[in-house]
Amino acid sequence: MSNSKWTKIEEILSGKKTGETVNLRGWIYRTRSSGNIVFTVVRDVTGTLQATVKKGNLSDKDFEDADKALIESSLEIQGVVKEDKRAPNGYELQVTGFNVVSFAEPFPITKDQSPEFLMDQRHLWIRSQKLTSILKIRSTVVGAIHKFFRQNGYYEFDAPVLQPNQCEGGSTLFEVKYYDNKTYLSQSWQLYAEAAIFALEKIYNMGPTFRAEKSKTSRHLSEFWMAEMEGAWMDLHDVTEIAKDEVRFILKEVLEHNRRELEVLGQDAKKLEHMSTAKYPTITYTEALDILKEKEKMNVEWGKDLRTLEENNLMSHFDTPVVVTNYPSEIMAFYKPKDPKDQKTALCFDMIAPEGYGEIVGGSQRSTDIEDMTKRLKDMGEKIDNYEWYFDLRKYGSVPHSGYGLGVERVVAWICGIDNIKDAIPFPRTLLRFRP
């Protein structure tokens, strides 16, 4: 069969191959023997199919191989496609040729394993239908992000992963030995992106991001992927509308390409369809506190950041993502400017997803006030010399500019409807896990 044309299982399940002899290759998903018949469910990247192996249709050796091959053994098989309503997915392959490429040992993963055990066996568990479906959707999400920005005139711009500066808070930096010096893993591409917009004007990036947050929640990873954008001549309103358009575009792409995967995950496609076309509200932080007070009887002190509890209660009143702007300036990063109309607040925003998935996008207009940024950095204990290059951007032709970052894993988790962000990335890195 090595020179044969290989058929994907999805072609068979479409009904286009009924009655034809086809060649498949894949892995055993399930298998059971009944005397002279072996019922083997085969999987490939496109789906699963029952293959019925009868003793009289094969050589004795090939039938013995089919009978003893365990789950995850790799196969090349040939057979005739038949429609059978009793079979899973409505079709089966009546096998006429069966070649085991590699016999698998007894598979260590069985039903009802603990989450920690599955994490230890991640290199094998990644083959599961659940994770395979999530990773396909993740691929669509990443492709959609590139497509969205390129179609809208953005240039892809890569920033260094090794950086001498902190961007989001020194306490969450990963320190790296760099020859005889030390540097840090990137918290964001932002500072370098701000340099690039004076040349390219509209840019975006997709890259790994590192935050040494001592958090064990289902929302946090120590290594994750962030899709960021930065644009010259843009204010806060401009970037919040771009973020809304991007999220709607991502949803449309997933709905177009991943209906089967959403079904496997038990996700409601109609709910996603609504959010792919709906208008997303924009409210201020102060308005969010008012909603919590009036509708949830929660008295959140003005100036406190919104925790998971507050975000979840707030979002119980919305069926789409919501943009929250103008958080208190005192709790914001040094580069987020104060709103001239309300000096207590910053020109910044978060986009919060419904159903308890929290912040999926965060961004701001960028400060052009060197004096204010210098003061804030000194208050944080930062060495101002490390930021002189950044301040140069304000000295030579500064313009209003803004940007945001979208957390890829948070968006994937939300779209897939999964409980834990760790399943939104192939090999999660957390406070307690850095292997396999």
Overall CATH class of the largest domain: Alpha Beta
Helicity level: 25-40%
The mean pLDDT is 94
Radius of gyration: 26 Å
Biggest sheet, in brief? 8 strands, mixed
Question: What's the β-strand tally?
Answer: 18
Query: How would the global form be characterised?
Result: elongated
Taking pLDDT < 50 over at least 5 consecutive residues as the criterion, the unreliable ranges are none
Summing up helix and strand content along with how strands pair, one would put the structural category as alpha+beta
CATH topology-level fold name of the largest domain = BirA Bifunctional Protein, domain 2
* Strand neighbour order, sheet with most strands: 6-10-11-18-17-16-13-12
CATH homology group of the largest domain? Bira Bifunctional Protein, Domain 2
User: How much of the sequence is in beta strands?
Assistant: 25-35%
Rounded to the nearest angstrom, the distance between the terminal CA atoms is 35 Å
Give the topology.
Layout: H1 9-13, E1 21-34, E2 37-44, E3 47-54, H2 60-68, E4 74-83, E5 91-102, H3 115-120, H4 122-125, H5 129-151, E6 155-156, E7 162-163, E8 175-178, E9 181-185, H6 190-200, E10 202-210, E11 223-232, H7 236-257, H8 259-264, H9 269-277, E12 282-284, H10 285-296, H11 308-315, E13 322-325, E14 338-339, E15 342-346, E16 348-353, E17 358-365, H12 370-379, H13 388-395, E18 401-407, H14 408-416
Parallel strand pairs: 3-5, 6-10, 12-13
Antiparallel strand pairs: 1-2, 1-4, 2-3, 4-5, 7-9, 8-9, 10-11, 11-18, 13-16, 14-15, 16-17, 17-18
Helix pairs in contact: 5-7, 5-14, 7-9
Provide keyphrases for this structure.
elongated; OB fold (Dihydrolipoamide Acetyltransferase, E2P); 14 helices; 18 strands; 436 residues; 8-stranded mixed β-sheet; 27% strand; 5-stranded mixed beta barrel; alpha+beta; BirA Bifunctional Protein, domain 2
